Amino acid sequence: MEDFESLRVFVCVAKELSVTGAARRLGKSPSNVTTRLQKLEESVGAALLVRTGKRFALSETGEVFLGYAERLLSLREESLHVVSGGRAPGTIRLGSMEATAASRLPAFLASFHADFPDVRLELRTSPSLQLIDDVRAGRLDAAFLAFPPSSMDGTFPENKERLGLETLDVWEESLLLLHPAVNQGAPGLDDVSVRTLAAFPQGCTYRRLAEEALQIPGSADWHIQESPSYHVMVALACTGRCATVLPESVYRTLAPVESLQPIPLGRVMTTLVWRAGYDTPTFRNFCATLQRQTGAD
């Protein structure tokens, strides 16, 4: 148990990049955290963290070790939860696209928490391809993401089993291109006049679909302005100099903006993805609740 506690301390420091911050989160003294880190590094035989001014950074060894530490902690908790028959409180490390976290998950997670208040849910957002990597590497237990159509990427979605993934289709989204208003009622792609697209970084399926629809790959005319959030993207579109891409479910959460018009880009499925063989009582309850509320199959 002590070794697992040292791993937990290391993971927390790696996230906080601060002994003081990690100690506060863990309810320990900074000296206790430092001692555990030193003993863990002695056991590993390598420095896991390096000091950069008043903060820490992961060493190259620490970057590699972090993934294994997270997987070991997750497997320990998973095994305890399974052998207890679900009586031990479980944790689900959940990933999601920003859009799903904003428009779909709040109501569902609130309902799930009401039914299973002892379950701890951890949530972080990333582009879809990063989420796939995180699930496969064991950094996440499951994630809500959108696979690129097979016409764009032969790796997905037909080869999910080869990737060691299981899936559940959940929500079908209508994808929109939000464009500065033009002088007609129902604009189409032929009416796009700007040549800048505000979008998430590479790995975002919605960005990929918009790029294909606008024939951006290989074009010298287009510029991609990467943005960290939909609110920033919409603000950029409001300048009249760029367009942005987002699902209708997110568009409906925004205050009306008369200077922008939506152009349909088609429909995209949001899928829950998890590692093949990941089967705990907590996750079974999670999937059952999701299916009951959404009709997913």
From TrEMBL:
Domain HTH lysR-type: start-end pairs: 1-59
Record PROSITE patterns: HTH_LYSR
Keywords: DNA-binding, Transcription, Transcription regulation
Keyword DNA damage among record annotations: no
A Pfam family it matches: HTH_1
Domain of life of the organism encoding this protein: Bacteria
Gene Ontology MF annotations: DNA-binding transcription factor activity; transcription cis-regulatory region binding
Transcription regulation listed as a keyword: yes
InterPro entries: LysR_HTH_N, LysR_subst-bd, WH-like_DNA-bd_sf, WH_DNA-bd_sf
Family note: Belongs to the LysR transcriptional regulatory family.
Alphabetical list of PANTHER family matching this protein: HTH-TYPE TRANSCRIPTIONAL REGULATOR, HTH-TYPE TRANSCRIPTIONAL REGULATOR GLTR
Protein name per UniProt: DNA-binding transcriptional regulator, LysR family
Source organism per UniProt: Kushneria avicenniae
Source taxonomy: Bacteria, Pseudomonadati, Pseudomonadota, Gammaproteobacteria, Oceanospirillales
